[in-house]
Fold each of these.
Amino acid sequence: MKVSILIPVFNEEENLALLAKELLQVVNGQPWQAELIFIDDGSTDRSPQILQELAQKEERCRVLTFSRNFGQTAAMQAGFEHATGEVVIPMDADLQNDPADIPRLLAKLEEGYDVVSGWRKVRQDKWLSRRFPSILANRLISWWTGVKLHDYGCTLKAYRSSVLKGTRLYGEMHRFIPVYATWRGARVVEMAVNHRPRRYGKSKYGLGRTFKVLLDMLTVKLLGSYSTKPIYLFGGLGVLFAFLGLLTFTGVALEKILIDQWPHKMTMLLFSTLLCTVGVLLIMMGLLAELMVRIYHEAQNKPIYLLQSDLHPTTPSPPSGPAQQEDNEVTQPELDPTPTAQSGQGG
Ligand code: UDP
Ligand code: MG
């Protein structure tokens, strides 16, 4: 069996050597073969050089380099497309995930699961800006998607590569793969993993990401449950609102008839009506735009990232995916300055 370990890297110079050492220690002497794919997501520090040296020294290391910062999700997407193992394990480059958990994840997978999702049970991040919003968001996602996990955001997960086939990730969506997988009938299980404080470098995220994740949650539901019947969502909400509108109208009419009261005194009511309407319409338009972005990228087989180099490829890229994309990569940037709809996710 071959295991592909994917590591998105954005300015992690102090962590890389340590991480590689820990990883190789874990990987050596295992009954399975390993491939370490580092995806350099446009780092501006010494990470690219360190990775280059690593790829030259260690034949199991492969380095994909992005032309700029496209975000962690794009990095993971690139990793999925280039991985050649039967099992794919993404993890963070900042040493917060523990490589020693990898054999445990694999053992769990062997028990007959398709996805083993890491759960940072004792999470070593700031409480107010990271852990607390994350707890709320995780609860909400569990309820909303019906897939009961405690920690969607943990990068360390193990997937059978068959589960990942055809996945196209946008926004912050890598965390929702277990949801998609469950909806498609995969067996998903959660496992507590070690989480360590970040010793070097800075976290690339703050509170803002929680909001992005919540919005992505809407998209996931639309695409997952309603992708073939959008009218159930749009129509359902439409009928609900029309019904509420009718109800309010009846109320107002009764007020006029019974106590001869016009609603002219409630100007704020108009504002709130307007704001709610605009809000709902914008969300709906956003969902439609999400669909269109997918058509835009997928109809042309346009990747959401741009590769600058691929050091030490182990096998030729599969014909349908990255190979064609590399054509795009060379020819399109001049014609089209916006090769991706999702630029830097760093905020
Ligand atoms: N990362 C990335 N591109 C980005 C931001 C982050 O590849 O635009 C990588 C980063 O180098 C790390 C992982 O994604 O390996 C997780 O990032 P971070 O540790 O900042 O997130 P946190 O653990 O704070 O949620
Ligand atoms: Mg981290």
Amino acid sequence: MSSELSITQLISQLREQLQQHNYQYYVLDNPTIPDAEYDRLFHQLKALEQEHPELITGDSPTQRVGAQPLSAFSQVSHEMPMLSLDNAFSTEDMQAFEKRLYDRLKLVDDQVIEYACEPKLDGIAVSLLYEDGVLVRGATRGDGSTGENITLNVRTIPSIPLRLMGDGYPVRLEVRGEIYMPKQGFAKLNQIAEQHGDKPFVNPRNASAGSLRQLDPKITASRPLEMCCYSVGIVEGGELPHSHTDILHKLATWGLKINAEMAVVKGSTGCMEYYAELAERRNELAYEIDGIVFKVNDIGLQQRLGFVSRAPRWAIAHKFPAQEEITRVRAIEFQVGRTGAVTPVARLEPVFVGGVTVSNATLHNMDEVERLGVRSGDSVIIRRAGDVIPQVVSVVQERRPEGTEPVQMPATCPVCDSEVVRIEDEAVARCSGGLSCAAQRKEALKHYVSRKAMDIDGLGEKLIDALVERELVHSPAELYRLHHRQLASMERMGDKSATKLLNSIEKSKAIELANFIYALGIREVGEATARTLALHFGSLPAIRAADEEALQQASDIGPIVAKYIVSFFHQQHNLEVIEALISAGVHWQDIEVSDQALPLDGKTYVLTGTLELMSRAEAKKQLQALGAKVAGSVSKKTDCVVAGPGAGSKLQKAEELEIPILDEAAMIALLEQLNS
Ligand code: IVH
């Protein structure tokens, strides 16, 4: 008898421990024990329950998965309707919303309304019902009055407690919130889908919906879903606090997840500030949001305001500009890039998405064209998030017109007619014409003159296209042979601009080794790699003489880049180009290479804000010359942040991570000290 009691105790102790660790891991994002330790506790509990099946309860952490598949979902009618939200799209809409509140509540101007602000998560609205602290039902919103019973599925989601923690919760408590799939989990899920040859999900919202609509809870369990709570429904046999944010914080004490970005602000001005701040960080968040929800924080005021039809008067969703839109593909064309890559591009009917008008979208390669199954004439969903280039997400099959044809890679280059070849295992097809192909010549020249390469001012894309088309320039060295007369006769060029351009071509002859290497356009050798090569080897002959192994001694140069570099210098044609440039007068100073480690080797710096004494490019160059890596964003790996006036989120992050921060003067002092 006594051993039975101790087993019961042991089981309940293990359950409590596991629940606590689960909460730390999935709700707070702050695990306190290693995964292996969690697994050990879990298996211990599982073994005990197997020996004593009579002691298994529904809220045991072992019981999340394992239920049998359903044949259909049953219906749930919501005792309290699950409402929707009105939308605002502008500051004016927000002001009008606030004015309606003032009118209805008969407030005067010096009274201020307090709002709770929350990201509007892009997932699926669900209701969880807890009775005596135990999760007894999970349901979708459905049409607001009737939803589907998805209890077995929600039980598999680790951030949803099967039993509430702590005490003081109402006897019946309905918690509402959004089930969503974080971006990272979504990407991984789609990666696996592709590996298995399955169709990927269009976006995290569809993936969440699809994952919850599974009759077999084991499938739901395998999907990276989370739930974030944003309101309550039924509250019986207990009391909740009197403000929205206090209620949510109360839910958090019972082990439910709430949004860490939630804030309280004053007035619609405060709302707009919050909106702007989050809009800027939207793409950094771990999950997709499509706007901000503002709610009158005082429950008493909420009750006075009530609701109209399906939406409360006390809340509004201020939507971000859509990141996805639908448009039609006018044509699919093939572009030839600098390295000869023949890339399919969708020409689109212009569409406003993610804040800009988009009329082209790269389709990357034929694998992508096949994956999407896109054809000329199709209606497609275009996505543009943040600064990311616009993408074709999917084809709206139902809207495909008659008579469309699958896209085929042309057998010959659309520009020079040379054969297009696709090397096995490579996704990219290439024009075999090399620099005999006008498209490749144009792209090579555009790269050569670009700012981070030879920095030839006044030689824009249109002019290069025209110079190549008129056969005035075939290779970079020929730029140095251009005459004033030739340039002045080009379209939109005059006497003055021709003189100016000749001056900048002349000026570009004195260059730094790193820029010259970058200008050569070796595959995969970007600005940073070019600098590494220059600093590590010191001279062009030294780089040319290095084999793959020697190249990989330089930091951040891997086997693939090394191969490209060696192969570049093996091609007679490339050596001739370099010779011709040197004969034309291009020159640089070699760099003294010492065997000693550089003082900032292995250190990562981030520059932010305005630098007033030195240009940002100069600061970057000097730091790199001392061995430092200069990165664009602050992370745990950052060693130092140089912050000038106007520094914002990067500085804030550095402070949070307690990374040393220098102002510009301190950086200059450091550079001087290390260079002396
Ligand atoms: S409150 C009465 N808060 O947006 C209040 N909804 O357009 C009803 N949503 O169906 C919802 N994040 O699925 C609220 N922080 C948030 C939300 C949120 C996402 C969704 C929810 C709702 C839809 C309304």
Amino acid sequence: MTLSLFLASATQRLADAGIPAAEARTEARILVQHALGLTREQLILRSDSPVDGGQGALLEPLLIRRANREPLAYILGERGFYGLSFQVTPAVLIPRPETEHLLEAVLAFSPPPAALPPPAALPPPAALPPPARLGSPPPPASRRGAASPPSPPSQRGTSDQPEGGTEWCEVGGGKKRGALLDIGTGSGCIAVTLAKLLPEVQVWATDISEAALDVARENAVRHGVSVEFRRGDLLAPLPPELCFEVIVSNPPYIAPAEAPTLEPEVRDFEPHTALFDPSLGGDGLTLYRRLAAEAPARLVAGGLLAVEVGQGQAEAVAQLWREAGLAEVAITLDLAGIGRVVSGRKP
Ligand code: GLN
């Protein structure tokens, strides 16, 4: 059999398993490349070359798994997100392109001046870092790898912090200029990408699953960033004095009653803790209600709370944000025109 016939028969196997034709062709090609160690160009150039039984045996187990509707990303062990490749295992949700909109909402955000110290503790103006968008590149010194001048201690000081207040809470643990938290980090795709793009920001990430955090830690190492990972429920595992300029989350938002409508790839393979509203008979909004109740207290004034939402949930979540006292509540549409990101700022 020639390589092109081999590819055609693999495509047919996937189509027969119920995978739509266009995807079957692309995925068969990717699996053949993966099994035989070929680039796309080699696959084309060698289309008339014969395929032997040994090569067939390399592809077969992959084809069986995919025909069984196991997601391609689990078979390959990785998935691209925002231009980076992430390790994925069945312990984590597979990163989705929609989630890139959440990332963009964060990159477009200007951190509030309130993230700086209270007036009495301000260092002389010359020592202040210039105001910058959170997504702006680091100053040249640190980009060249030279050590940045240390922040004056007063900039991170907590001595003026009112008892029990969150107004002047310690921002991000005091290690970097800004602080960001990703709740329910899963593969770590959001936290690690943001840590990579925003080297001046201290990134924290929580997840309830230790197995997911193991994958997220691997991804942080893979991309050479340091993220403070903590295991636990939403904000519970964080030091109580910590506040953030940005809190993001892509929480499990599918109502359990919708499970029968999901593709088998999702329902039968992705972790249910990452997909479904955790409350029995939940409407999909349970974790947004909890985030509205718990997250604003952990934001600095002017800080951003941004979440991904499921189809049809944006208005309800925007309303939760308003009721929680957040301002500038905004809905961002995804490429399909579906309200996908809801954000708001703490006044
Ligand atoms: N934060 C991860 C992602 O966006 C995981 C989200 C989740 O498990 N619900 O892919």
